[in-house]
Amino acid sequence: MYDHLEIRCPKLGHQVNFGYCRQENNTLPCARAILCWQPYFPVALYLREKLTRAEWDRCFNQQPKEKIVSLLELIEAAKKRREPSD
User: Fold this and answer.
1) What b/e readout covers 46-73, taking b as 16+ CB neighbours within 10 angstroms?
2) From CA 59, how far away is CA 29, in angstroms rounded?
3) pTM for the full model?
4) Confidence of residue 86 (pLDDT cuts 50, 70, 90)
5) In whole angstroms, how far apart are CA 3 and each of 13, 43, 48, 62, 69?
6) In this structure, what are the phi and psi dihedrals at residue 66, rounded to the nearest 5 degrees?
């Protein structure tokens, strides 16, 4: 219904459609989806109808990680990718 609508994504820095935002997080919506799309349609109401309570909580009710924690996780993941496999 709203999947074709497009806005500029503040996270990616280019145009994306709502269909992308709706599944950006491993088939769950981007955590910023409500903030970004609220001016265009009742996105919170729409997503509450589509998501289970657990999915909603996983998307929108978790504390965001601090940037330093995210950065350290990315560094560790990159190190593991560079390690030679046995």
Assistant:
1) bbeeebeeeebeebbeeeeeeeeeeeee
2) 7
3) 0.70
4) low
5) 19, 11, 16, 25, 32
6) -70, 150
